Amino acid sequence: MAGLRAQTLMFALVAALAILDRTFVDANFDKAMVVTWGKDHIGTSNGNLRLVLDKSAGSAIRSKVAHLFGSIEMLIKLVPGNSAGTVVAYYLSSTGSAHDEIDFEFLGNATGQPYTIHTNIFAKGKGNREQQFRPWFNPTSGFHNYTIHWNPSEVVWFVDGTPIRVFRNYEKEGIAYPNRQGMKVFASLWNADDWATQGGRVKTNWTEAPFVAEGRRYKARACLWEGSASIKKCADPTVRSNWWTAPSFSQLTGLQLARMQKIRDGFMIYDYCKDTNRFKGVMPPECSKRQF
Ligand SMILES: *[C@@H]1O[C@H](CO)[C@@H](O)[C@H](O)[C@H]1NC(C)=O
Ligand SMILES: *[C@@H]1O[C@H](CO)[C@@H](O)[C@H](O)[C@H]1NC(C)=O
Ligand SMILES: *[C@@H]1O[C@H](CO)[C@@H](O)[C@H](O)[C@H]1NC(C)=O
Which of 94, 156, 268, 288 could bond to 181 as cystine, CB 3.0-4.6 Å? Predict the structure, then answer.
């Protein structure tokens, strides 16, 4: 009997969460986000996002609410053609000097191909954890799925369902982890020709402007952050069971790990953990630990 009651309670809880769920899952850009830069360079309609960059301005948008843990998903089609100097940034960030941040950035190329998929993570203000990849597809000819999974145990960057990078929680060993600050979701298109393409040697060619990137199907299956150290609401019951209360370190299956290894072997072009010159031999502590 007790079991049955527990089951009924559980059912009610899941149903209640499912109602909450609808307000956050499949959130459209126009409902869930606000424009923060380039009002006349941005379009949001029917769940589509259009980011424009020309010589006068770029464009940026951010979520209205902040999240602590969850799965943040967006389909993106990058700037086609000569995109050197342009950067599409899609990231989570908190505010303040000791901020947390989880990044996807897409650096263009003068020949159109290949792009650089740049990733980084900051915890308590400390970044310098870049890893870069070549896409194994043409990211300008169609939409591709870039997803950040973030739970108390680990952060995983996914591209079209394939994990490419993991950052694990080694807080107990003195390495900061992003788990105390809510982060908002940002997307932007801007000119970074002082560094983006071959360290700033290739400049943005403004005669090719306007540059346009597009987004679709923004989804935050994520817990809501309301400004204190505790999570208030999780928008999706699956987040709760699969991510928020993750019992073990790794949520990735053996198959996913194998696919990630293959991508890293074949398409990773920069790994801060291998850059001994940069760190003068004193490598960041997480580099000597299991990465995934
Ligand atoms: C995008 O990828 C994530 C992570 O693999 C997955 O959970 C989600 O269902 C995908 N979304 C779409 C629209 O394909
Ligand atoms: C741009 O593409 C060319 C090939 O067309 C490649 O050799 C080069 O490394 C790429 N540049 C960057 C900065 O990724
Ligand atoms: C810039 O783009 C224009 C138009 O495509 C082209 O004619 C010109 O050669 C480009 N300039 C440089 C420096 O590549």
Answer: 94
- Between CA 134 and CA 199 the distance in angstroms is 17
CA pair distance 33, 226, nearest whole angstrom: 17
- Please tell me the residue having the least CA distance from ligand 3 atom 1: 205
Mean per-residue pLDDT for 42-64?
Answer: 93
**Cα separation, 188 vs 89, whole angstroms:** 5
* Active site (catalytic) residues: 101, 105
DSSP H or E segment with residue 34: strand 33-37
* pLDDT at site 14: 39
The Cα angle at residue 151 between residues 278 and 120, in degrees rounded to 5: 20
99: burial class by Cβ within 10 Å (0-12, 13-18, 19+)?
middle
Residue list, ligand 3 pocket, CB within 6 Å: 205, 207-208
CA 9 to centroid of ligand 1, rounded, Å: 30
Q: Is the pLDDT of residue 288 over 90?
A: yes
More confident residue, 28 or 14: 28
Nearest residue CA, atom 11 of ligand 2? 109
User: What's the CA-to-centroid distance between 71 and ligand 1, angstroms?
Assistant: 9
Which ligand sits nearest to residue 82's alpha carbon? 3
Where do the domains of the chain lie, and which CATH numbers do they carry?
24-288 (2.60.120.200)
DSSP 201: T
Angstrom distances, CA of residue 226 to CA of 28, 172, 223, 232: 21, 26, 10, 6
Q: For position 230, what pLDDT does the model report? A: 57
Q: How far is the centre of ligand 1, averaged over its atoms, from the C-alpha of 73 (Å)?
A: 7
CA distance 117 to 256: 19
